[in-house]
Amino acid sequence: MGVYWAIAVRSFRRFSTYRIATLSGAFTNTVFGFIFCGVYLTLWHTSPGLGGYDVSDALTFVWLQQGLLAPIGIFGATTTVELGERVRTGEVAVDLYRPTHLMIWWLSVDAGRAWFQLLTRGGAPLLVGALVFDLNFPTSAAQWLAVAVALAFGILVSFGVRYLVALSGFWITDSRGLESLAMVLSLFFSGTILPLVVFPGWIGEVARATPWAATLQVPIDVWLGRNPGGVRSGLLFQLFWIVVLFLAGRLVTVLATRKVVIAGG
Amino acid sequence: MSVIELQNVSRAFTVSSRTGLRRTRREVRAVDGLSFTVEPGEVVGYIGPNGAGKSTTIKMLTGILVPSDGTIRVAGVDPSRNRMKLAKRIGVVFGQRTTLWWDLPLKDSFAVLQKMYGVPRARHAENLATFVELLDLGDLLDVPVRQLSLGQRMRGDIAAALLHDPEIVYLDEPTIGLDIISKARLREFLAEVNKERGTTIILTTHDLDDIEALCSRVMVIDHGRQVYDGTLAGLRASQSAPRTLVVDLASSMPPITVDGATVTKVDGPRQHLTFPTSTSAAPLVAQIAANYPLVDLSVAEPTIESIIARLYTAATPTP
Q: Domain map of chain A by residue range?
């Protein structure tokens, strides 16, 4: 187990060397935070209580969303994009020479990245947002704990999806098309454009049942205390997707390894 | 007991090519009926032209590719069935790829390897100290890998492949792109590791100086088949590549006539003659000196490149 911890630590350190990228990313998130706040303020003034959110819920949603885009990897993450690249070029064979499990190796790499980006890319915009607007924060230790768990779960779900997309390159000549499709789906169904709570009827039902809803919408709702079925059901919903995606990931890893080892590429 | 054993190993790939809508599939045998054994502590040069099947063989030896036919045993196990277990006992270096952490100082990569292979701390420290000294890595440990020169990075990669005391190391073109001094230093280091630790080394290369400097044994593969296995000297002797006699005459002359040799090139007063390896040069020289105004002469042995080129062309594939 020590090796995976060592890998996560190195991955954290690796991302900490990208100072300019981190700084400009946090700046961009902050700028978009203000833009979204303008839009959401108008929206919640025209229809107060939209999706069960009050105005300060909506504004808190904006800053959490901007802070979590990078750590959760809503637009994809450097790590899994790199894995996709290695699959395309065949360099992934090098990973098979190691006495480590492919999926856990990349999960550790992604965890190190997410932790670093959570501290920097997540912290900075939230701080700015909280200084300018009146935002909601968890009120009890139990709620803080639930937020921490929901965030970790959200990152795991997102990794599960991104890992599958990256490994699709074993069967699709160029998996970049699938990568962009996954990004569009993720952007919409995670609640990045609009909180999923505002979608009415069956569209809302469907949107809130996808794995992407488990990446961003659920953790933010845990923070706000607005999960439609309560915190417990939110966390269980995330756990369900983690189990499904990790089983699929394990299966695809076995199939991909077999393809390389038996078919030769 | 042999550390590597191959018995009649073949590997076929299905290659499908597409022209318009028509799709044709054909089978390519990258390795075809290969058998050999390697004893512990041997340094084997594994050479062949591009596409000869070298990489396919290495992939099968490391277990990331199963043979279509035949049996392989490495360190007593079937590689593809015990890939992870075997990975702890072998080291692999690709000259054109790195396994180091690109953006982090070199020492971080080494620290991860200690955990990855479960090397006891004391042993790791001891190995690291040895390699740092032998490969002169002391000043590089704190430098991010991306800032290292190719030669420095390669030294780092080789140290990384050896830190867990592997029994066998596969080196795929370790000296590619390096300058002469870096090459010499690397060869010295590998010879030292082999001598001190008894590590078995399998080296694929296009640089025959690597082979001359390191390998007690050479295997030549072409079109998936073994065309030579033995010593470098034996390889020289086995191929009767002609030797060359270069004579400088007092003045320009038409091609001279000598029994047992033929003129291949006239360059002013200098003439090049070839004669078979089996013939002694002495009677030829005596003959020329008696009949022509001989000023100077030299005898050139066939280069190892020319010998191997002959071997490659001789081994034409059977359809």
A: 2-263
